[in-house]
Amino acid sequence: MTTRVDLVAGARPNFVKLAPVARALSEHTALRARIIHTGQHYDAALSGVFFAELGIAEPEVSLDVGSGTHGEQTARILERYEAHLLRSRPRCCVVFGDVNSTIACALAASKLHVPVVHVEAGLRSFDRTMPEEINRILTDAIADLLLVTEPAGVANLRHEGVSDDRIALVGNPMIDTLRHFLDLARARRRAGQLGLARDGYGVVTLHRPSNVDDAPTLRRLVGALREVAERQPLVFPVHPRTRQAAGAAGVPLEDGVRGGLLVLPPEPYLDHLSLMSGAAVVLTDSGGMQEECAVLGVPCVTLRERTERPVTVEVGASRLVGSDPDRIREAHADAIEGRWPEIGSISLWDGHAGHRIAEALESWLSGVVDA
Ligand code: UD1
Q1: Which of 224, 236, 263, 274 would give a disulfide with 190, using CB separation of 3.0 to 4.6 Å?
Q2: How far apart are CA 151 and CA 347, in angstroms?
Q3: Three-class DSSP category at 72
Q4: Cα(278)–Cα(257) distance, rounded to whole angstroms?
Q5: Is 180 assigned a catalytic role?
Q6: Is the beta carbon of 172 within 6 A of some atom in ligand 1?
């Protein structure tokens, strides 16, 4: 019986979640991780630099699917991963998060009766206009083992009728990576390199289709960001999707400083963590950054109406403000003028989720009969 376990990653946040699981599997189990890179993200700034900095082994398999519409991208991943599974069948397929690579590989594996494990299962925004929400619901519906980061995920899965023996609350592997690299990241002093004082700046990111693909929304958001940047400098590493959308909408977002807004290309992991850890405030629509802020103790002004990560709101780290300039201004002012509440800690976000995932996987696989 093979001990090979496929770990599937495709997009930037997947790499951050995969790294501690790959490490824990190699250190603590007899299982052998085989890394599959779908190629959903392919630019060095979104992919290669993450493998290098996080110490992830080169992928054994690259599917090289590239960009496309949802249908094109998902279909290419499905077809190419299926072909790979038919050539070389693993003991199980582990997928991460909620990107197109997650659902496509889960579906290919499930149809071939390769057991599917979903890391970051159960999260729900209850907003089906988000492509990620569709990916989450579908992946959880076909996954065999559901590994969950926060209590709401367990409640959602139970509500959907998943039996308890398929669910495990394991904590958050993205936070393992943060804790592992935080000292190294701080030592890079990225803010200082950019001429910014610790606690004297904010960090902003935007990439959700609902915020960037609609020109009036993007224009309103960038206008609000330029306004708050007049109070305190804001660093804005711009995702390629946002760069393209800004170009198409005629919103000026070229690299460089204008007013208090410093626009940059996407930052590598360590520089980005360095920047976030010294920030007075983060403004973002990224789910991962909401989580990272909760652990760093940095107020997170969340540029969304809903979150699938409610624990970040419950502990006081994240405040949902949508794309409304008044709410953005008000939350930003609360953060930089000391009116943000104390941020509480989150159980199991302790840097050891990777080990718990490896243990859960090993003990679960010992009870699974090969198809
Ligand atoms: C994807 C995920 C999103 C995740 C985000 C993290 C889905 C549905 N979306 O969104 O959940 O939060 O990754 O970054 O899976 N592009 C490049 N270089 C690349 C990759 C993409 O320039 O390496 C450009 C392409 O023009 C592409 C666009 O960015 O069309 C969007 O990329 P895509 O992977 O489709 O979605 P993201 O917005 O990155």
Answers
A1: 274
A2: 9
A3: helix
A4: 20
A5: no
A6: no
CA distance 136 to 188: 35
Amino acid 288: pLDDT = 98
Token couple for 127: 């907003």
User: Where does the pLDDT of residue 256 fall: very low under 50, low under 70, confident under 90, or very high at 90 and above?
Assistant: very high
Name which residue sits closest to atom 35 of ligand 1, judged by CA. 67
- Closest ligand 1 atom number to CA of residue 45: 23
CA-CA distance, 102 to 40, in Å (whole number)? 10
Ligand 1, from 42, 67, 210, 242: best to mutate by most atoms within 8 Å of Cβ? 67
CA distance 37 to 64: 8
Residue 262 near residue 255 (C-beta atoms within 8 A) = no
Nearest Cα neighbor of 96 from 6, 196, 217, 228 is: 6
* Beta bridge mates, 281: 202
Q: Which of 235, 333, 279, 288 is nearest to 50 (CA)?
A: 288
Residue nearest to atom 17 of ligand 1 (CA): 240
| Nearest atom, ligand 1, residue 102 CA | 15
Q: Determine the distance separating the centroid of ligand 1 and the alpha carbon of 123, expressed in angstroms.
A: 20
- Return the percentage of the chain with pLDDT > 90, whole number: 97
Task: Report whether pLDDT(371) > 80.
Answer: no
The token pair at 192 is 């200082």
Q: Round to whole Å and give the CA distance between 306 and 322.
A: 8
Which strand ranges, in their side-by-side order, compose the sheet holding 32-37?
Answer: 61-62, 32-37, 4-9, 92-96, 116-119, 145-148, 167-169
- Write down how long the chain is: 371
Which residue owns the Cα nearest ligand 1 atom 25? 67
What are 307's two structure tokens? 């979150």
Q: What is the pTM of this model?
A: 0.97
Per-residue tokens: 99: 């990107």
Q: Tokens for 320?
A: 């949902």
Answer yes or no: are the C-beta atoms of 121 and 147 closer than 8 Å. Answer: yes
Three-class DSSP category at 176? helix
C-alpha closest to that of 194 among 275, 281, 259, 283: 275
Q: Which of 41, 78, 205, 289 to mutate to test the pocket of ligand 1 (most atoms within 8 A of CB)?
A: 41
* DSSP state at residue 364: H
| Residue whose structure tokens are 């699981």 | 21
